[in-house]
Write a structure and sequence with these properties.
Mean pLDDT: 85
CATH class of the largest domain: Mainly Beta
Strand order of the largest sheet: 5-2-1-8-9
Radius of gyration: 24 Å
Number of helices: 11
Distance between the termini: 52 Å
Helix content: 25-40%
Number of strands: 16
Number of domains: 3
Low-confidence stretches: 1-29
Largest sheet: 5 strands, antiparallel
Structural class: alpha+beta
CATH topology of the largest domain: Immunoglobulin-like
Strand content: 15-25%
């Protein structure tokens, strides 16, 4: 049984004039000092500091000395920071993922965190898990708002999860449950997703004049219709948009939004078919049909597991004006060809030769597969997560129920 470890983290992030607060001490503007005291932590343990999640390169690192950790640097705008404490062996993947991570949305000011070490979130957790009551001080003004946002979205996530589980259970009882009841469950899933999206939009728009609202807008921009993105950006002050922080945020917004927002027109790209011939997206998109752009790879288990269902949908709705264009992100041409022969996919297939680094993958912000994007007859994006029950619901709404 692990011994109980309590640690206190004090983050002194200074220069609060940027946020309109008053400093009580004369310090260098825009600077922070992070001091961490961790009882029972072994000296020499490595600690990393990240701007954002623990996904990219750390911005700083230090080692524990006398059970104490200290970071110093500059913060020009409130943002999400993560502190990754290495307690376990980095060479062992399972143990490495058990190293605790502290995620905070910090602004300039003092931050004091007290928590039970063994109860901290780790890299093995899915998504962002933030500290709540453990974080106190003037530097967690926006962090408290961030916690409120996450707490507020939980009921919507739970409602959607319940609806999804109920529908999946209905599919397993297909011969026992009337189709009308299955459709009702499918509509519940859709409504739960609409309610969740409405909550996210409302929170962001209510907070778009502060750093948290802008951060969440960048993270969730693909959930905004393309026509709303420009109006949200226009509501930001010219001073913010011209600042370094504003430029970084706008760059992130455009990176996340390009090609991926509802209503966005497709961008043409050249791909290769199995015979090595060039094909263009414009050969299929914008030609009067509903087209599913299916990003996949031969090594992707979920992609292959989903193909039987996708074949069923294709068989039912192909004659109604529904097409699929499979785009493989395989880095080895021979693996793709072998998979095509083995899987016998009935729709048109193409290869993005550079895989994840291909222009089409980067433009549509494909960071994982399967990625299934449904485009309308005019070539505008309808849904970027059109698979499984979501695809069924879209087909039923567009063409009627043929399942």
């Amino acid at each position: 049984m692990k011994s109980k470890k309590i640690f206190t983290i004090c983050l002194f992030v200074l220069g609060v004039a940027l946020l309109g607060f008053n400093c009580r001490q004369a310090v260098e503007p825009n600077s922070y000092s992070i001091k961490v005291n961790v009882p029972e932590l072994i000296d020499g343990s490595t600690v990393y500091l990240y701007a954002g999640q623990v996904l990219s390169d750390p911005i700083d690192s230090t080692v524990v000395s006398n059970q104490s950790i200290e970071f110093k640097g500059e913060l020009d705008y409130p943002q999400l920071y993560s502190i990754w404490i290495h307690l376990y062996d980095d060479t062992n993947k399972e143990q490495r993922l058990q190293n605790p991570v502290i995620t905070l949305f910090i602004n300039n000011g003092d931050i004091a965190v007290t928590a039970n070490l063994e109860n901290l979130p780790t890299l093995a957790n899915r998504g962002i898990v933030v500290l709540r009551d453990e974080a106190e001080g003037s530097g967690v003004f926006f962090h408290k708002k961030y916690v409120a946002f996450l707490d507020g979205i939980m009921p919507y996530n739970a409602k959607r999860g319940q609806a999804v589980n109920a529908y999946r259970q209905a599919l397993r009882q297909e011969d026992k449950m009337p189709r009308a009841q299955q459709i009702e469950l499918l509509l519940m899933v859709e409504q739960a997703e609409v309610d969740r999206t409405d909550y996210i939009h409302s929170f962001i728009l209510d907070n778009i004049d502060n750093p948290l609202g802008k951060y969440l807008f960048a993270q969730h921009v693909r959930e905004f219709p393309v026509e709303d993105i420009d109006s949200v950006i226009a509501s930001m002050s010219p001073e913010f948009k011209s600042s370094d922080a504003g430029q970084r945020l706008l760059e992130e917004v455009m990176t996340n939004a390009r090609g991926g927002s509802k209503g966005a027109e497709f961008k043409d790209f050249c791909l290769a078919d199995p015979e090595g011939n060039d094909i263009m997206l414009s050969d299929y998109l914008g030609k009067g049909k509903y087209v599913l752009l299916e990003f996949w790879a031969s090594w992707c288990g979920p992609c292959i597991a989903g193909f039987p269902h996708l074949k069923k949908v294709y068989e039912l709705y192909r004659s109604e004006g529904f097409e699929i264009l499979g785009v493989s992100l395989d880095d080895k041409h021979e693996n793709w060809l072998a998979a095509l022969q083995r899987l016998d996919l009935p729709w048109k297939n193409a290869l993005a030769a550079a895989g994840w680094n291909s222009e089409i993958a980067r433009y549509y912000n494909v960071t994982g597969v399967p990625a299934c994007m449904l485009f309308g007859p005019e070539g505008t994006l309808i849904n970027r997560n059109a698979r499984d029950m979501t695809l069924e619901m879209l087909m039923i709404k567009i063409f009627g129920d043929k399942f």
